[in-house]
Design a protein that fits this description.
Blueprint (H helix, E strand, L loop, with lengths): L1 H5 L8 E3 L1 H7 L2 E6 L9 H9 L4 H6 L1 E4 L3 H12 L4 E6 L4 H9 L3 E5 L6 H12 L2 E3 L5 H17 L5 E5 L4 H13 L4 E7 L4 H8 L22 H10 L2 E5 L1 H15 L5 H11 L9 E6 L6 H9 L3
Parallel strand pairs: 2-10, 3-4, 3-6, 4-5, 7-8, 7-10, 8-9
Antiparallel strand pairs: 1-2
Length: 311
């Protein structure tokens, strides 16, 4: 059902390789380029899938989402395509390029302070006040099912994969990868990647309980969540082989390498799995390593700064 709902609505994104990257990574690396998805990130898959299942009555009332940017963009565009009102709750320090895109897609933006306010509570209050549907970024079966199509396509296009490495924020993309691999290729290893600051999934897997951390400071703004969603955690706990950590410098270096060598514009969040591969952290996961580049919505000023830095 999910594949049929998304057919003709989402892009089947390309897979790219690089010999210069492989030499440093120590294995053949295949990149699933979700920066070429609609709204510039994988999030459109889950958002459109979820909004497509709402009743006519709920569609008329509209939807509310909370997001640092990519989920907000995805919900905003999906709502416009399906003729629904949309409100997106965004942190007041959200990247301007993402804020501009949300507004361009026609959604109303309401700001919150990520350090003093609970973003989910802000969105819940609005949803309750206006009787709108709350669309979470990851903790929802239809969202995860939409995100699962990333790994589904990846495994169909590259059946030789021995591992898939995934950026981890709320866990929806990681959980989706687990589900697709479990059905299509149970022997494929699933590895999550976070930054050292935004390490709640790493801690959760280490302790075998869902850990909540304070809002993290990281260049990877999409990873600045405080915990995995309950549903993603129930899947991740059973299926993920490892969560790896990378430094802020590693992420910036990966963004720069992908741009300069592969001519790919990837935002820091989207580059964390590539950062792990570039450091050789995935060498033990077989000959053919799949890396999901989850998005490309990077602020031009930040990209310029990263490109002019020395590694």
């Amino acid at each position: 059902m999910t594949m049929r709902r998304l057919e003709g609505r989402t892009h089947h994104t390309p897979v790219q390789t690089s010999k210069s990257f492989d030499e440093l990574a120590g294995s053949t690396t295949l990149f699933k380029c979700e920066q070429f998805q609609r709204t510039g990130a994988f999030k459109f898959r889950g958002a459109f899938n979820k909004l497509s299942t709402l009743s006519n009555e709920q569609s008329k009332r509209g939807v509310v989402a909370y997001s640092s940017g990519n989920h907000g963009q995805a919900v905003a565009l999906s709502a416009r395509l399906l003729h629904m009102p949309a409100i997106i709750c965004m942190p007041d320090d959200a990247p301007r390029v993402k804020l501009a895109a949300v507004r361009a897609y026609g959604a109303e933006v309401i700001f919150y302070n990520r350090h003093t306010q609970n973003r989910e509570q802000v969105a819940q209050d609005i949803a309750r006040q206006y009787q709108m549907a709350l669309i979470p970024p990851s903790d929802d079966a239809m969202i995860i099912a939409g995100h699962a199509t990333v790994a589904w396509e990846f495994l169909q296009d590259a059946p030789e994969l021995t591992c898939i490495a995934v950026p981890v924020g709320g866990g929806g993309l990681l959980a989706g990868a687990c589900l697709s691999a479990g059905f299509l290729a149970p022997n494929v290893k699933i590895v999550g990647v976070q930054t050292e600051a935004a390490n709640h999934a790493y801690l959760s897997l280490q302790k075998q309980e869902r850990v909540t951390i304070a809002p993290a400071e990281s260049v990877a703004d999409g990873l600045r969540t405080c915990s995995l969603g309950l549903l993603p955690w129930s899947i991740v706990q059973r299926r993920v082989d490892e969560i790896l950590l990378v430094s802020e410098a590693d992420v910036r270096n990966a963004v720069r390498f992908l741009h300069q060598r592969l001519k790919l514009v990837v935002e820091p969040t989207g580059a964390v799995a590539a950062a792990a591969a570039l450091r050789g952290q995935l060498r033990d996961y077989g000959r053919y390593v799949g890396v999901i580049l989850s998005g490309g919505n990077i602020d031009p000023a930040l990209l310029s700064t990263i490109l002019t830095e020395t590694s």
